């Protein structure tokens, strides 16, 4: 009897162990399936800009944060021509998030726009860069010169064309070349152009690298802010580029707000979480680029002419910036 009792007692742990092993073998694959099931993965494509400009640094850091902190989210960064192309990609449903200058947006987006805002993030400053030996000392000196006005599809191109119009340079024999930031720097270095424009948050890394190894000048544009505001939407304001940024004489630039935009059809909870991380991880974003650290919860809600996404609005309302 004793032997039978022990045998029965011995069989129970063995049976339990078999069941437990079976469960443990099945469970990880089940969890993995839930975690890795493509149907459960939320793809967030972030449209940025040049690899050496602020949008790309900001977007790359934001993608890292989203991937780390939001389950089932796969965020990735796209290199683009920047603002105009980013808005187009958002409208076409080819990306979920994107950065843009405010001045490329329509003054009246109409009811239920397909693209809305997450936040106003920082201001772009329009740089006009030339060499120190160049005779170009003011905007009107560009007459008859070869100048890069920014990549086709960029916010820089939009702002510069407006600036050249108000300055009366449309018929001044100026040769406009459409180059992105990196190509503009290379072309100026080789003497293929006389100057280039670029609109970006301070400091623009490619500009900083150029002025570090090449005698250069950044042209003051402060006097053109008011004419730009008169002839276009009143988004432009003067902002100084201090000596501490590039180690050069301070100048005043034309500044333009930047927004982080989102497709209007994204779920409210997802956009709320993106907005939360954008605000709560500002220190980490600033490590990627100082401009990203200038986000203010109070100024973030000012995104005219676009409304905030309901998920973003809910976050700001609950956090009471």
TrEMBL record:
PROSITE patterns, per the entry: PROKAR_LIPOPROTEIN (PS51257)
Superkingdom, taxonomy of origin: Bacteria
InterPro entries for the chain: TRAP_TAXI
SUPFAM superfamilies assigned: Periplasmic binding protein-like II
Pfam family, one: NMT1_3
Spans traversing the lipid bilayer: none
Protein name in UniProt: C4-dicarboxylate ABC transporter substrate-binding protein
Native organism: Micromonospora maris
